[in-house]
Amino acid sequence: MPETVKLTTEKMKHDLVGMVGSDNVAVGSVERERQYQLQAPLVVFPDEERKVEQILGWASENHVQIAPQGGGTKDAYGHPDDGADVILSLRNMSGVTQHSVGDLTVTVLPGTTLSELQQALGKEGQFLPLDPAWGEQSTLGGIISANASGPKRAMYGSARDYLIASRICYPDGTLIRTGAKVVKNVAGYDMNKLLIGSMGTLGVFTELTFKIRPIPVYAGALAIHSTDLLKLRRLQEMLLDSQLEPSAVEWVNSRLGSRLFGVAVKGPLLLISFEDVERSVQFQLNWLLNACDSLGVTVREQISGYEETQVVLSGLREHLPNSNDIPDDKLVVSVKLLSMLAEVPAVYEVAQNAADERGLPLDFHGGLYTGISRATVQADFGQQREVLEWLHTVESFLGVLNGRSVIEVAPRNIKMKLNVWGAEAEDWKLMRGIKHKIDPKRILNPGRFVGGI
Q1: Is the pLDDT of residue 152 over 90?
Q2: What are the distances in angstroms from CA 310 to CA 243, 363, 390?
Q3: Best label site of 16, 134, 237, 335, fewest CB within 10 Å?
Q4: pTM assigned to the model
């Protein structure tokens, strides 16, 4: 079989200009290694589905490796790619194409940001119950590809609960449709779930349809503090044993908590929010206030009103690193830690103590109803050894708990030395088989996902 001749950058640019026009092709920045952002010699900006099909079909024929990109906020996620030839930016494919208010469904293009969608839905008193970080920049295509979520996952679930239909362009340019634009649909295997969280390694979303919900009438939250961690653990146990339905329950360390509320806090906070009709929210807040009194813990802040509660939760989400804004000369490591619900306080203690011992500033919050914690340290590259020691300590502890750690953000040159997805799992072999079946030429994001997929 003859060896494939690699296209030159000039030839690739010429071909892409012929497909999308000169205004929609840009020369990428490759003169120096970017630590947190995607890099490629060329960037292409299709503005319609047909052009995505054409680009991927051309890439497959010529063995051109493609890195899909939305808003760029998650460029640092996953393994560094194997050297993409072209970044496929979907930012010019944005907008709501269909909103069925009565059926509670909405269809959008993949480059639509979460904030744009929420503003459009808000005019009809509706919203999409996903709350990942940086909603003003994060696109729906990127959110779904990364299966990103935020603190309100405790109540509303994840992207897998809301994506009901999509149009996807396979690596060879073939367009497929999955699901149906109706809320109740049980016919056949739900292909959406295969693509959600696949990090753009199996296909490129060109259209997404979600089921949506009415905006809650009311919301409220409490920030609860105690230097006695056993009391906060006991409050978590009481919550889990109760009939309460909080929208978010987060264990927040003192550094992040102090920044959220503008006052110095010694020790962790529990941030607990509720969303429902006002009577229900007030009942649950009163139950929680009585529980705090019985345990002798302090309510540091009480937040009332839907908008006011969202502001606090937004501040909690957006401490996470945004790949667009991290300077290349800063060492930023952000880790997603997955554990049993009851183990989140122990994960916090290990992460905090390991950071304190090495003089590293730590932001930490952990979902007491989700088992998902996020820990972020920021330092100078001169502290690389301390950061790697901290990381090893936290990962080792998760291993003892039979949990899992995923390094979401780290400099490219450090990620090259690490297994960012953690220890190999039993399902990786299956996922490699799916990747080989759908993308045998390794056109889309090669090497970025688990097990080198």
Answers
A1: yes
A2: 23, 20, 32
A3: 237
A4: 0.94
